[in-house]
């Protein structure tokens, strides 16, 4: 996982935001007055948060484990292309 305390805190803060978003989804589903469109918007926000978290963890993995000297079948340029591809896919 993330190798610096700052990065770890950043990832944990993302998880807390996603948890808050999921709590909002739960409250919306429990409410009989909530419109389907509103619930769908909440779910889209959760999906965006999870995709952002996944992209961050994948980027860390690529940079810290696949591109390290002596351990990499990837060149730095290919690694950056892979990161760009992952980001585009998760949007």
Write structural notes for this entry.
This protein has 91 residues and is an all-alpha fold. The chain has one domain (5-90): Up-down Bundle (Methane Monooxygenase Hydroxylase, Chain G, domain 1). It is 79% helix and 0% strand. It is built from 3 helices and no strands. The protein has helices at residues 5-30, 36-66, 76-90.
N- and C-termini, Cα separation: 22 Å
Major sheet size, sense and barrel closure: none
H/I helix tally:
3
**Compute the gyration radius: what is it?**
17 Å
Second rung of CATH, namely the architecture = Up-down Bundle
How many domains, as an integer? 1
- Helicity level, as a percent range? over 70%
Give the helix/strand layout.
Blueprint: H1 5-30, H2 36-66, H3 76-90
How would you concisely characterize the structure shown here?
This protein has 91 residues and is mainly alpha-helical. 79% of the residues lie in helices and 0% in strands. The protein is elongated and about 60 Å long.
Structural key phrases:
mainly alpha; 91 residues; Methane Monooxygenase Hydroxylase, Chain G, domain 1
């Amino acid at each position: 996982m993330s190798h610096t305390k700052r990065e770890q805190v950043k990832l944990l803060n993302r998880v807390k935001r996603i948890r808050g978003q999921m709590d909002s989804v739960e409250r919306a589903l429990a409410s009989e007055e909530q419109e389907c469109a509103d619930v769908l918007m909440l779910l889209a926000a959760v999906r965006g948060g999870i995709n952002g978290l996944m992209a961050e963890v994948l980027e860390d993995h690529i940079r810290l484990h696949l591109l390290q000297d002596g351990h990499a079948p990837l060149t730095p340029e290919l690694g950056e292309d892979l990161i760009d591809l992952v980001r585009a896919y998760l949007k």
